[in-house]
Amino acid sequence: MIRNPILPGFNPDPSICRVGEEYFIATSTFEWYPGVQIHRSKDLVNWDLACRPLSRATQLDMRGDPDSCGIWAPCLSYADGLFWLVYTDVKRYDGNFKDAHNYIVTAPSIEGPWSDPTYVSSHGFDPSLFHDDDGKKYWLVLQWNHISESIGGKPKTSAFDGILCQEWHPEEGLNGEIKVISKGSALGLTEGPHLSKRNGWYYLTVAEGGTGYSHAVTMARSRDVFGPYELHPDTHLLTAKDDPDAPLQRTGHGQVVETPEGETYHTFLCSRPLPGQFSPLGRETGIEKCEWRDDWLYVEGGGTLAHLEVPAPFDVEQRAPVAVERRFADELPPEFQWLRTPEPERIFTLTGEALRLTGRESIGSWFEQSLVARRQEHLRYRAATTLEVFEPTTYQQAAGLTTYYNRYKFHFAVVSWTEELGRCLMLMSCPGDWPDGRMQFPATPVPLAEGPVELAVEVDHAKQQFIYRQGGGNWQPFGPELDASVISDEGGRGEHGSFTGAFVGMMCFDITGQGRTADFTRFSYDPT
User: Fold this and answer.
1) Which of 268, 259, 151, 146 is nearest to 219 (CA)?
2) Nearest Cα to 416, choosing from 509, 478, 482?
3) Does pTM surpass 0.90?
4) Residues linked to residue 279 through DSSP beta bridges, in sequence order
5) Which residues are registered as beta bridge partners of 460?
6) Which active-site residues does the annotation give?
7) How large is the average pLDDT for residues 160-173?
8) Residue 94: per-residue pLDDT
9) How many of the other CB atoms lie within 10 Å of CB of 193?
10) Smallest Cα–Cα separation from 195: which of 174, 167, 159?
11) Fewer CB within 10 A of the terminal residue: the chain, N end or C end?
12) Beta strands per DSSP E along 419-498
Protein backbone atom coordinates (compact mmCIF):
# COMPACT_ATOMS: atom_id res chain seq x y z
CA MET A 1 0.00 0.00 0.00
CA ILE A 2 0.94 3.65 -0.45
CA ARG A 3 0.63 5.54 2.83
CA ASN A 4 -0.28 9.21 2.56
CA PRO A 5 1.19 11.71 2.63
CA ILE A 6 3.98 10.40 0.42
CA LEU A 7 6.03 13.61 0.88
CA PRO A 8 5.52 14.58 4.56
CA GLY A 9 6.14 18.09 5.79
CA PHE A 10 6.11 21.25 3.69
CA ASN A 11 5.77 19.90 0.10
CA PRO A 12 2.78 21.64 -1.55
CA ASP A 13 1.43 21.98 -5.11
CA PRO A 14 2.71 18.64 -6.45
CA SER A 15 3.36 18.40 -10.19
CA ILE A 16 4.07 14.82 -11.25
CA CYS A 17 5.47 13.27 -14.42
CA ARG A 18 6.70 9.83 -15.40
CA VAL A 19 9.79 9.14 -17.53
CA GLY A 20 10.08 5.44 -18.37
CA GLU A 21 9.88 3.54 -15.08
CA GLU A 22 10.59 6.57 -12.87
CA TYR A 23 8.24 9.15 -11.39
CA PHE A 24 9.17 12.70 -10.45
CA ILE A 25 7.28 15.21 -8.28
CA ALA A 26 8.10 18.93 -8.13
CA THR A 27 6.79 20.95 -5.18
CA SER A 28 6.77 24.60 -4.17
CA THR A 29 9.54 25.99 -1.97
CA PHE A 30 8.35 29.61 -1.63
CA GLU A 31 11.12 31.72 0.01
CA TRP A 32 13.41 28.75 0.78
CA TYR A 33 16.56 28.33 -1.29
CA PRO A 34 17.51 26.53 -3.56
CA GLY A 35 14.18 26.72 -5.36
CA VAL A 36 11.77 23.86 -6.21
CA GLN A 37 12.06 20.48 -4.56
CA ILE A 38 12.02 17.45 -6.90
CA HIS A 39 11.60 13.91 -5.55
CA ARG A 40 11.90 10.66 -7.49
CA SER A 41 10.43 7.18 -7.10
CA LYS A 42 10.18 3.90 -8.99
CA ASP A 43 7.13 2.61 -7.15
CA LEU A 44 5.03 5.64 -6.02
CA VAL A 45 5.61 4.41 -2.44
CA ASN A 46 9.14 5.46 -1.45
CA TRP A 47 10.46 8.83 -2.54
CA ASP A 48 13.95 10.35 -2.43
CA LEU A 49 15.05 13.94 -2.95
CA ALA A 50 16.53 14.16 -6.45
CA CYS A 51 17.48 17.84 -6.69
CA ARG A 52 16.59 21.47 -6.13
CA PRO A 53 17.28 22.86 -9.60
CA LEU A 54 17.06 26.65 -9.03
CA SER A 55 20.40 27.03 -7.34
CA ARG A 56 22.12 30.14 -8.71
CA ALA A 57 21.47 33.84 -9.01
CA THR A 58 20.79 33.75 -12.76
CA GLN A 59 17.85 31.44 -12.07
CA LEU A 60 16.50 32.83 -8.81
CA ASP A 61 17.12 35.71 -6.41
CA MET A 62 14.45 36.11 -3.73
CA ARG A 63 16.10 38.74 -1.52
CA GLY A 64 13.26 41.01 -0.45
CA ASP A 65 10.49 38.54 -1.31
CA PRO A 66 7.95 38.63 1.54
CA ASP A 67 7.10 35.55 3.61
CA SER A 68 5.27 32.92 1.56
CA CYS A 69 6.22 34.58 -1.72
CA GLY A 70 8.97 33.31 -4.03
CA ILE A 71 8.41 29.97 -5.77
CA TRP A 72 4.74 29.10 -6.20
CA ALA A 73 3.35 25.96 -7.86
CA PRO A 74 5.99 24.67 -10.30
CA CYS A 75 5.12 22.42 -13.23
CA LEU A 76 7.46 19.57 -14.22
CA SER A 77 7.17 17.76 -17.54
CA TYR A 78 9.29 15.69 -19.93
CA ALA A 79 9.32 16.03 -23.73
CA ASP A 80 11.80 16.14 -26.61
CA GLY A 81 14.49 14.49 -24.50
CA LEU A 82 14.37 17.23 -21.86
CA PHE A 83 12.87 17.94 -18.47
CA TRP A 84 10.90 21.19 -18.53
CA LEU A 85 10.39 23.07 -15.28
CA VAL A 86 7.98 26.01 -15.17
CA TYR A 87 8.01 28.24 -12.11
CA THR A 88 6.84 31.57 -10.70
CA ASP A 89 8.78 34.00 -8.52
CA VAL A 90 6.09 35.99 -6.68
CA LYS A 91 7.40 39.35 -5.45
CA ARG A 92 4.44 40.66 -3.48
CA TYR A 93 1.79 39.21 -1.17
CA ASP A 94 -0.32 42.00 0.30
CA GLY A 95 -2.34 44.53 -1.66
CA ASN A 96 -3.76 44.29 -5.16
CA PHE A 97 -0.69 43.10 -7.03
CA LYS A 98 1.38 39.92 -7.04
CA ASP A 99 4.18 40.84 -9.51
CA ALA A 100 4.38 37.17 -10.49
CA HIS A 101 7.17 36.49 -13.00
CA ASN A 102 7.07 33.17 -14.83
CA TYR A 103 10.02 31.27 -16.30
CA ILE A 104 11.06 27.97 -17.88
CA VAL A 105 14.30 26.04 -17.34
CA THR A 106 15.28 22.74 -18.96
CA ALA A 107 17.74 19.91 -18.32
CA PRO A 108 18.73 16.68 -20.10
CA SER A 109 18.47 14.75 -16.81
CA ILE A 110 16.85 15.46 -13.48
CA GLU A 111 20.29 16.08 -11.95
CA GLY A 112 20.96 18.74 -14.54
CA PRO A 113 22.64 20.77 -15.71
CA TRP A 114 19.62 23.07 -15.50
CA SER A 115 19.59 25.95 -17.95
CA ASP A 116 19.32 29.64 -17.27
CA PRO A 117 15.66 30.67 -17.35
CA THR A 118 13.57 31.77 -20.30
CA TYR A 119 11.11 34.45 -19.25
CA VAL A 120 7.54 33.86 -20.45
CA SER A 121 5.00 36.19 -18.84
CA SER A 122 3.74 37.91 -15.69
CA HIS A 123 -0.04 37.52 -16.14
CA GLY A 124 -0.34 35.75 -12.81
CA PHE A 125 0.92 32.66 -10.98
CA ASP A 126 0.67 28.84 -11.22
CA PRO A 127 1.89 28.48 -14.82
CA SER A 128 2.17 25.14 -16.58
CA LEU A 129 3.37 23.83 -19.93
CA PHE A 130 1.43 21.21 -21.92
CA HIS A 131 3.13 19.20 -24.69
CA ASP A 132 0.49 18.08 -27.18
CA ASP A 133 0.89 14.89 -29.21
CA ASP A 134 1.25 16.91 -32.44
CA GLY A 135 4.41 18.60 -31.10
CA LYS A 136 2.78 21.90 -30.17
CA LYS A 137 3.24 23.36 -26.69
CA TYR A 138 0.70 25.38 -24.74
CA TRP A 139 1.23 27.79 -21.87
CA LEU A 140 -1.39 27.96 -19.13
CA VAL A 141 -1.45 30.51 -16.31
CA LEU A 142 -3.88 32.16 -13.93
CA GLN A 143 -4.79 35.72 -14.94
CA TRP A 144 -4.65 37.94 -11.81
CA ASN A 145 -7.10 40.85 -11.72
CA HIS A 146 -5.76 43.72 -9.60
CA ILE A 147 -8.87 45.84 -10.29
CA SER A 148 -11.25 43.21 -8.93
CA GLU A 149 -12.98 45.75 -6.67
CA SER A 150 -16.15 47.28 -8.08
CA ILE A 151 -15.55 50.28 -10.35
CA GLY A 152 -18.22 52.79 -11.28
CA GLY A 153 -20.98 50.74 -9.72
CA LYS A 154 -20.20 47.59 -11.71
CA PRO A 155 -20.36 44.30 -9.76
CA LYS A 156 -17.21 43.24 -7.97
CA THR A 157 -15.24 40.54 -9.78
CA SER A 158 -12.77 37.96 -8.53
CA ALA A 159 -9.04 38.58 -8.59
CA PHE A 160 -8.80 34.99 -9.88
CA ASP A 161 -9.80 36.02 -13.38
CA GLY A 162 -9.63 32.76 -15.29
CA ILE A 163 -7.09 30.39 -16.79
CA LEU A 164 -5.26 31.70 -19.85
CA CYS A 165 -4.04 29.41 -22.63
CA GLN A 166 -1.69 30.37 -25.47
CA GLU A 167 0.65 28.48 -27.77
CA TRP A 168 4.32 28.73 -26.83
CA HIS A 169 7.42 27.91 -28.85
CA PRO A 170 10.95 27.46 -27.39
CA GLU A 171 12.44 29.86 -29.95
CA GLU A 172 9.53 32.18 -30.67
CA GLY A 173 7.93 32.39 -27.22
CA LEU A 174 4.21 33.07 -26.86
CA ASN A 175 2.37 33.35 -30.16
CA GLY A 176 -1.12 33.17 -31.60
CA GLU A 177 -4.42 33.60 -29.82
CA ILE A 178 -4.50 34.05 -26.04
CA LYS A 179 -7.77 32.89 -24.54
CA VAL A 180 -9.44 32.46 -21.16
CA ILE A 181 -10.33 28.77 -21.35
CA SER A 182 -11.90 28.37 -17.91
CA LYS A 183 -13.17 30.35 -14.96
CA GLY A 184 -13.74 27.17 -13.00
CA SER A 185 -16.78 26.17 -10.99
CA ALA A 186 -18.97 28.06 -8.56
CA LEU A 187 -16.46 27.26 -5.81
CA GLY A 188 -14.19 29.92 -7.33
CA LEU A 189 -10.57 30.95 -6.66
CA THR A 190 -9.59 28.91 -9.71
CA GLU A 191 -5.82 28.37 -10.03
CA GLY A 192 -3.16 25.68 -10.55
CA PRO A 193 -4.05 24.57 -14.12
CA HIS A 194 -2.68 21.37 -15.64
CA LEU A 195 -3.65 19.85 -19.00
CA SER A 196 -3.53 16.19 -19.98
CA LYS A 197 -4.91 14.27 -22.96
CA ARG A 198 -6.64 10.90 -23.31
CA ASN A 199 -8.82 9.37 -26.03
CA GLY A 200 -8.98 12.68 -27.89
CA TRP A 201 -10.16 14.60 -24.81
CA TYR A 202 -8.23 17.46 -23.24
CA TYR A 203 -8.58 17.32 -19.46
CA LEU A 204 -8.11 20.49 -17.47
CA THR A 205 -7.35 20.00 -13.77
CA VAL A 206 -7.45 23.09 -11.55
CA ALA A 207 -7.25 23.89 -7.86
CA GLU A 208 -10.20 25.77 -6.37
CA GLY A 209 -11.60 27.12 -3.14
CA GLY A 210 -8.37 28.66 -1.85
CA THR A 211 -5.63 26.67 -0.20
CA GLY A 212 -7.47 26.31 3.13
CA TYR A 213 -10.22 23.97 4.27
CA SER A 214 -12.42 24.56 1.20
CA HIS A 215 -9.70 23.44 -1.20
CA ALA A 216 -10.55 21.09 -4.08
CA VAL A 217 -9.35 19.49 -7.30
CA THR A 218 -11.80 20.36 -10.09
CA MET A 219 -11.78 18.71 -13.50
CA ALA A 220 -13.19 19.68 -16.90
CA ARG A 221 -12.78 18.36 -20.45
CA SER A 222 -12.95 19.52 -24.06
CA ARG A 223 -12.30 18.20 -27.55
CA ASP A 224 -10.34 21.38 -28.32
CA VAL A 225 -7.41 22.68 -26.31
CA PHE A 226 -9.01 26.15 -26.27
CA GLY A 227 -12.38 24.81 -25.12
CA PRO A 228 -15.19 25.12 -24.37
CA TYR A 229 -14.62 22.93 -21.28
CA GLU A 230 -17.46 21.07 -19.58
CA LEU A 231 -17.23 20.42 -15.84
CA HIS A 232 -16.88 16.95 -14.35
CA PRO A 233 -20.26 15.37 -13.43
CA ASP A 234 -19.26 15.64 -9.75
CA THR A 235 -17.44 18.96 -10.33
CA HIS A 236 -14.66 18.05 -7.88
CA LEU A 237 -12.44 15.01 -8.23
CA LEU A 238 -10.91 15.45 -4.75
CA THR A 239 -11.96 17.58 -1.79
CA ALA A 240 -12.45 17.34 1.97
CA LYS A 241 -14.39 20.59 2.23
CA ASP A 242 -17.57 18.83 3.34
CA ASP A 243 -15.83 16.36 5.69
CA PRO A 244 -14.20 18.25 8.57
CA ASP A 245 -13.33 15.01 10.40
CA ALA A 246 -11.39 13.46 7.52
CA PRO A 247 -7.74 12.82 8.51
CA LEU A 248 -6.46 14.47 5.32
CA GLN A 249 -7.73 18.04 5.04
CA ARG A 250 -7.29 20.88 2.52
CA THR A 251 -6.97 18.39 -0.36
CA GLY A 252 -6.48 20.03 -3.73
CA HIS A 253 -3.97 21.14 -6.39
CA GLY A 254 -2.55 18.08 -8.10
CA GLN A 255 -1.91 16.37 -11.42
CA VAL A 256 -2.70 13.14 -13.26
CA VAL A 257 -0.08 10.44 -13.96
CA GLU A 258 -0.34 7.01 -15.55
CA THR A 259 1.80 3.97 -14.79
CA PRO A 260 3.43 2.00 -17.64
CA GLU A 261 0.61 -0.54 -17.18
CA GLY A 262 -2.07 2.12 -17.66
CA GLU A 263 -3.17 2.59 -14.05
CA THR A 264 -4.08 6.17 -13.17
CA TYR A 265 -3.13 8.16 -10.08
CA HIS A 266 -3.63 11.79 -9.10
CA THR A 267 -1.40 13.77 -6.76
CA PHE A 268 -2.81 16.35 -4.36
CA LEU A 269 -1.72 18.61 -1.57
CA CYS A 270 -3.17 18.06 1.90
CA SER A 271 -2.59 18.79 5.57
CA ARG A 272 -2.93 16.84 8.82
CA PRO A 273 -4.10 19.53 11.22
CA LEU A 274 -3.90 19.48 14.98
CA PRO A 275 -7.11 20.11 16.93
CA GLY A 276 -8.21 23.66 16.32
CA GLN A 277 -7.03 23.47 12.71
CA PHE A 278 -3.32 24.16 13.08
CA SER A 279 -1.00 22.67 10.44
CA PRO A 280 2.66 22.78 11.57
CA LEU A 281 3.60 20.29 8.86
CA GLY A 282 2.22 22.71 6.30
CA ARG A 283 0.75 21.42 3.08
CA GLU A 284 2.04 17.96 2.21
CA THR A 285 1.89 15.78 -0.91
CA GLY A 286 -0.39 12.77 -1.25
CA ILE A 287 -1.47 10.54 -4.11
CA GLU A 288 -4.77 8.81 -4.85
CA LYS A 289 -5.65 5.80 -7.04
CA CYS A 290 -8.23 6.71 -9.69
CA GLU A 291 -10.31 5.00 -12.36
CA TRP A 292 -11.89 6.04 -15.66
CA ARG A 293 -15.63 5.77 -16.27
CA ASP A 294 -17.29 7.19 -19.38
CA ASP A 295 -14.12 9.18 -20.14
CA TRP A 296 -14.22 10.87 -16.73
CA LEU A 297 -11.77 10.32 -13.89
CA TYR A 298 -13.01 9.28 -10.42
CA VAL A 299 -11.38 8.30 -7.15
CA GLU A 300 -11.24 4.50 -7.14
CA GLY A 301 -14.16 3.24 -5.08
CA GLY A 302 -16.08 6.51 -5.33
CA GLY A 303 -16.35 9.69 -3.32
CA THR A 304 -14.06 12.70 -3.24
CA LEU A 305 -12.06 11.99 -0.08
CA ALA A 306 -8.38 11.12 -0.26
CA HIS A 307 -7.32 8.05 1.70
CA LEU A 308 -4.50 7.41 4.16
CA GLU A 309 -3.77 4.11 2.38
CA VAL A 310 -3.97 3.64 -1.38
CA PRO A 311 -3.26 0.54 -3.51
CA ALA A 312 0.26 0.65 -4.94
CA PRO A 313 1.10 -0.43 -8.50
CA PHE A 314 2.93 -3.47 -7.08
CA ASP A 315 3.96 -4.86 -3.71
CA VAL A 316 6.72 -2.91 -2.01
CA GLU A 317 7.44 -2.06 1.61
CA GLN A 318 7.28 1.59 2.66
CA ARG A 319 10.35 2.74 4.55
CA ALA A 320 9.86 3.62 8.21
CA PRO A 321 10.95 7.04 9.55
CA VAL A 322 14.47 6.98 10.98
CA ALA A 323 16.54 9.27 13.15
CA VAL A 324 19.15 11.31 11.26
CA GLU A 325 22.43 12.43 12.83
CA ARG A 326 24.53 14.87 10.78
CA ARG A 327 28.15 15.82 11.26
CA PHE A 328 29.07 18.78 9.11
CA ALA A 329 32.00 18.12 6.77
CA ASP A 330 32.43 19.52 3.26
CA GLU A 331 28.83 19.61 1.99
CA LEU A 332 25.56 20.76 3.45
CA PRO A 333 23.32 17.70 4.01
CA PRO A 334 20.55 17.57 1.42
CA GLU A 335 17.61 18.10 3.79
CA PHE A 336 18.79 21.60 4.72
CA GLN A 337 17.85 24.88 3.04
CA TRP A 338 18.25 28.57 3.73
CA LEU A 339 16.22 31.69 2.99
CA ARG A 340 16.07 33.80 -0.20
CA THR A 341 19.70 34.53 -1.05
CA PRO A 342 21.60 33.04 -4.03
CA GLU A 343 24.87 33.94 -2.24
CA PRO A 344 25.03 31.29 0.51
CA GLU A 345 28.74 31.86 1.01
CA ARG A 346 27.82 35.13 2.73
CA ILE A 347 25.75 33.35 5.37
CA PHE A 348 27.46 29.97 5.85
CA THR A 349 30.53 27.92 5.00
CA LEU A 350 31.59 24.33 5.69
CA THR A 351 34.97 24.25 7.43
CA GLY A 352 35.41 20.48 7.22
CA GLU A 353 34.56 20.17 10.90
CA ALA A 354 31.62 22.53 11.35
CA LEU A 355 28.83 24.48 9.73
CA ARG A 356 30.01 28.06 10.25
CA LEU A 357 27.21 30.63 10.20
CA THR A 358 28.19 34.25 9.65
CA GLY A 359 25.91 36.57 11.58
CA ARG A 360 23.98 38.89 9.25
CA GLU A 361 20.52 40.41 9.60
CA SER A 362 17.91 39.60 12.22
CA ILE A 363 15.62 36.60 12.33
CA GLY A 364 12.90 38.93 10.96
CA SER A 365 14.75 39.97 7.80
CA TRP A 366 13.49 39.41 4.25
CA PHE A 367 16.96 39.83 2.76
CA GLU A 368 19.97 38.11 4.34
CA GLN A 369 19.42 35.75 7.26
CA SER A 370 21.97 33.21 8.46
CA LEU A 371 19.39 30.50 9.03
CA VAL A 372 20.04 26.91 7.90
CA ALA A 373 17.16 24.56 8.68
CA ARG A 374 15.25 21.44 7.70
CA ARG A 375 11.54 20.66 7.49
CA GLN A 376 9.50 19.36 10.37
CA GLU A 377 8.12 16.11 8.95
CA HIS A 378 6.50 14.59 12.04
CA LEU A 379 4.12 15.81 14.72
CA ARG A 380 6.50 14.43 17.37
CA TYR A 381 10.26 14.82 17.09
CA ARG A 382 13.44 15.81 18.91
CA ALA A 383 16.10 17.97 17.25
CA ALA A 384 19.49 18.76 18.78
CA THR A 385 22.63 20.65 17.82
CA THR A 386 26.02 21.49 19.30
CA LEU A 387 27.09 25.12 19.18
CA GLU A 388 30.81 24.48 19.44
CA VAL A 389 32.17 28.02 19.17
CA PHE A 390 30.38 31.32 19.63
CA GLU A 391 31.63 34.24 21.72
CA PRO A 392 29.19 37.17 21.64
CA THR A 393 30.28 40.48 23.09
CA THR A 394 26.92 42.28 22.87
CA TYR A 395 23.23 41.43 22.97
CA GLN A 396 23.17 42.33 19.27
CA GLN A 397 24.92 39.03 18.53
CA ALA A 398 23.11 35.72 18.98
CA ALA A 399 23.24 32.13 17.72
CA GLY A 400 21.23 29.03 18.52
CA LEU A 401 18.41 26.65 17.71
CA THR A 402 15.05 27.75 16.30
CA THR A 403 11.69 26.32 15.38
CA TYR A 404 10.71 28.65 12.55
CA TYR A 405 7.79 29.33 10.23
CA ASN A 406 8.34 32.93 9.17
CA ARG A 407 9.37 36.31 10.56
CA TYR A 408 6.21 36.46 12.69
CA LYS A 409 6.15 32.85 13.91
CA PHE A 410 9.17 31.36 15.64
CA HIS A 411 10.72 30.24 18.93
CA PHE A 412 14.49 30.76 19.25
CA ALA A 413 16.84 29.56 22.03
CA VAL A 414 20.03 31.60 21.65
CA VAL A 415 23.46 32.03 23.11
CA SER A 416 23.89 35.79 23.52
CA TRP A 417 25.26 38.32 26.01
CA THR A 418 23.98 40.73 28.62
CA GLU A 419 25.85 43.27 30.70
CA GLU A 420 24.65 41.60 33.91
CA LEU A 421 25.43 37.97 33.00
CA GLY A 422 27.93 38.10 30.15
CA ARG A 423 27.56 35.06 27.90
CA CYS A 424 24.14 33.56 28.53
CA LEU A 425 21.20 31.61 27.18
CA MET A 426 18.12 33.60 26.11
CA LEU A 427 14.72 32.72 24.70
CA MET A 428 13.13 34.80 21.94
CA SER A 429 9.60 34.06 20.77
CA CYS A 430 7.21 35.57 18.24
CA PRO A 431 3.68 34.15 18.53
CA GLY A 432 2.43 35.21 15.13
CA ASP A 433 1.13 38.70 15.81
CA TRP A 434 0.77 40.63 12.54
CA PRO A 435 1.64 43.28 11.46
CA ASP A 436 3.48 44.32 14.61
CA GLY A 437 5.68 41.21 14.85
CA ARG A 438 7.27 42.12 18.19
CA MET A 439 9.12 39.41 20.07
CA GLN A 440 8.46 38.13 23.57
CA PHE A 441 11.12 36.93 26.01
CA PRO A 442 9.40 34.18 28.01
CA ALA A 443 12.41 32.94 30.02
CA THR A 444 14.91 34.49 32.43
CA PRO A 445 18.39 34.41 30.83
CA VAL A 446 20.73 31.72 32.21
CA PRO A 447 24.51 32.33 32.56
CA LEU A 448 26.75 29.97 30.59
CA ALA A 449 30.26 28.69 31.16
CA GLU A 450 32.87 28.89 28.46
CA GLY A 451 32.91 26.21 25.78
CA PRO A 452 30.36 24.34 23.67
CA VAL A 453 26.63 24.46 24.36
CA GLU A 454 24.27 21.64 23.38
CA LEU A 455 20.75 22.79 22.51
CA ALA A 456 17.71 20.64 21.80
CA VAL A 457 13.98 21.00 21.31
CA GLU A 458 11.33 18.38 21.95
CA VAL A 459 8.09 18.85 20.02
CA ASP A 460 4.91 16.90 20.72
CA HIS A 461 2.03 18.07 18.54
CA ALA A 462 1.06 21.50 19.96
CA LYS A 463 3.75 21.58 22.67
CA GLN A 464 7.47 22.20 22.57
CA GLN A 465 10.23 22.46 25.15
CA PHE A 466 13.81 23.69 24.73
CA ILE A 467 16.51 21.91 26.75
CA TYR A 468 20.27 22.45 27.04
CA ARG A 469 23.45 21.20 28.65
CA GLN A 470 27.17 21.94 28.91
CA GLY A 471 30.19 19.75 29.59
CA GLY A 472 28.32 16.49 29.10
CA GLY A 473 26.11 17.09 32.14
CA ASN A 474 22.41 16.41 32.45
CA TRP A 475 19.94 17.98 30.07
CA GLN A 476 17.98 20.78 31.68
CA PRO A 477 14.75 22.44 30.51
CA PHE A 478 15.11 26.04 29.43
CA GLY A 479 12.12 28.30 29.64
CA PRO A 480 8.47 27.32 29.79
CA GLU A 481 6.63 24.85 27.61
CA LEU A 482 5.85 26.78 24.44
CA ASP A 483 2.95 26.71 22.00
CA ALA A 484 4.14 24.76 18.95
CA SER A 485 0.83 25.31 17.16
CA VAL A 486 1.95 28.91 16.51
CA ILE A 487 4.60 27.47 14.16
CA SER A 488 1.97 26.52 11.60
CA ASP A 489 0.02 27.70 8.57
CA GLU A 490 -2.84 28.94 10.71
CA GLY A 491 -0.86 30.07 13.77
CA GLY A 492 -1.15 33.67 14.93
CA ARG A 493 -2.62 35.86 12.22
CA GLY A 494 -2.30 32.89 9.89
CA GLU A 495 -4.24 34.44 7.03
CA HIS A 496 -1.30 36.72 6.26
CA GLY A 497 1.16 34.81 4.07
CA SER A 498 1.02 31.31 5.54
CA PHE A 499 1.66 28.75 2.82
CA THR A 500 4.83 26.97 3.91
CA GLY A 501 5.47 24.81 7.00
CA ALA A 502 7.53 24.51 10.16
CA PHE A 503 11.32 24.21 10.01
CA VAL A 504 13.86 23.51 12.74
CA GLY A 505 17.48 24.59 12.44
CA MET A 506 20.44 26.77 13.31
CA MET A 507 20.50 30.56 13.21
CA CYS A 508 23.05 33.28 13.83
CA PHE A 509 22.62 37.05 13.66
CA ASP A 510 24.96 39.95 14.24
CA ILE A 511 23.22 43.26 13.76
CA THR A 512 26.41 45.19 14.60
CA GLY A 513 27.47 44.45 11.03
CA GLN A 514 30.68 42.77 12.21
CA GLY A 515 29.72 39.30 10.99
CA ARG A 516 30.60 37.30 14.12
CA THR A 517 30.60 33.58 13.32
CA ALA A 518 29.09 30.57 15.07
CA ASP A 519 30.33 27.00 14.53
CA PHE A 520 27.80 24.15 14.74
CA THR A 521 29.33 20.67 14.66
CA ARG A 522 26.30 18.40 14.64
CA PHE A 523 22.55 18.33 14.10
CA SER A 524 20.15 15.47 14.77
CA TYR A 525 16.48 14.97 13.97
CA ASP A 526 14.68 12.06 15.60
CA PRO A 527 11.00 11.23 14.98
CA THR A 528 9.84 9.97 18.37
Assistant:
1) 268
2) 509
3) yes
4) none
5) 380, 463
6) 368
7) 96
8) 85
9) 25
10) 167
11) C
12) 422-431, 446-447, 453-460, 463-469, 476-483
